Amino acid sequence: MDDILPSGTVAWKDVRVFLNLYCYPFNVLITGIDYRNLNYGASMHFATIGSNNGHDGLDGRSFLHNPEVINDFAFRAVHVQTIIGKQIVEAYYNRPHHKSYYLGCSTAGRQGTLAALKYADDFDSIVAGAPATDWNHLVGVGGMLARYVGAPNAATSKSFITPALWDNIAAEILQQCDELDGVKDGIITEPDACDFLPEALLCDPHQENSDDCLSPAQVRALRKIYGPLYGTTGELLFPRYDPGTEADGNALLFMSGDVSMYTKGWYKYAIFNDSNYDFSNFSVQDIEFANRINPGGISTFDGDFSRFRDRGGKFLTYHGRRDELIPSGNSKRLYNLISKTLEMPSLDTFYRLFLVPGMNHCHRGPGAGNFGQLGVSTNMKNVSTHNVLLAMVDWVEGAVAPDYLVGTGDDGRERVHCLYPQKSVWDGHSFVCRTDEFSFQVVGKS
Cα–Cα distances in Å, from 315 out to 84, 372, 389? Predict the structure, then answer.
């Protein structure tokens, strides 16, 4: 664990503790601690804490026959580093912290979510981007996507889709769905509205092995890829892979012909405890088994946020609609689970979700995907409308909740990102946030 304690903060009336994590499965970086984001917190004048979550490395080898490492990864490391970090801050500044803030994405988004569920007093504010919630199902879906295109024996599979074909598929999806939002800009604002028809690329019956069209087996594979995953008794296990996500080579993360490192790392070393498992027979039954044993209670799919809500905590989550790792529909699904569990039609008093069109996993992509969520490079404007961390300070300490976020693209263009369940709608001049089908409220301009 490392802390960065800005000396200038000692002159402040109040000391803010900031825990910053950015974790792909299965860790922060191969060296452990993400110093780039530690420095970001310090640059914003927070006393900043970070750790390696109990192990180093980018695969799951540390999990093999090691349940305590799994517990660290699932829930304990963040809680312990928060307790110790606050003690270090108090010793250094000779006063206790005033407020505590959490900022994380991906696996760190899941860990922030679990902190709200399990340790409601740890943080006053949590920003959990693209959270990897419903973990066992999520990581299992990656295995099924690979299986749909023939992994681990793709070389002999009629379903395998080459990188060149994926480029054509991505172009066809944009052709079918880009203008559903009223503007042709290379961004699918609402992937759930895109009913992609892969049959449009079907080869002539006498044409085979082409990089320009699809065989019937490949069409069937795409139908599975762009459909939800259901369990053995017909229940929904996980939302579908978002159309539009496959562009720019993103499809190869899960559908290169091999099983992804994320699925291998969790299922080989934490679920099956078998480093030689080869995924030849990997199936929905294996995903259901993983969720039944749920090592370390890692699933993180529980709607009971009542303790966090009742103690005054504030929770914000964002998710790119072009997320190549975690389908954005999962964040809608979690929102709806919380709403149903707490019997609250709107969660706005303590929980806010922002969906970000055109943003990849946590950042990047063709959309306006920079709003202070991930390092100094994403902090395009140091104001609360454009910086999610500053927006949370306003919410926690000034009772001013963010009704929208303004993102900035790498090209400098801005777009308003809407508070769920509002919809981002093109009004002929810019994107606005519409509250329902018949009326809309302009909260900003793109």
Answer: 22, 16, 11
Q: Which of 106, 215, 299, 446 is labelled catalytic?
A: 106
- Exactly one of 361, 363, 386, 417 is catalytic; which is it? 361
| 106 catalytic per annotation | yes
Residue 153's contacts (CB-CB under 8 Å, 6 or more residues apart) are: 280
Give backbone dihedrals phi and psi of 207, rounded to 5 degrees, phi first.
-110, 125
pTM over 0.90? The answer is: yes
Q: Which of 97, 323, 331, 386 is catalytic?
A: 323
417 is catalytic: no
Instruction: Decide: residue 277, CB within 10 A, 0-12 exposed, 13-18 middle, 19+ buried.
Output: middle
Catalytic-residue membership of 363 = no
Kindly state the tokens that stand for 195: 């009913």
Six-digit token pair at 140? 């299992």
pLDDT (tens digit per residue) in 281-339: 999 999 999 999 999 999 999 999 999 999 999 999 999 999 999 999 999 999 999 99
pLDDT tens digits, 139-168: 999 999 999 999 999 999 999 999 999 999
| Spatial separation of the C-alpha atoms in residues 160 and 145, rounded to whole Å | 11
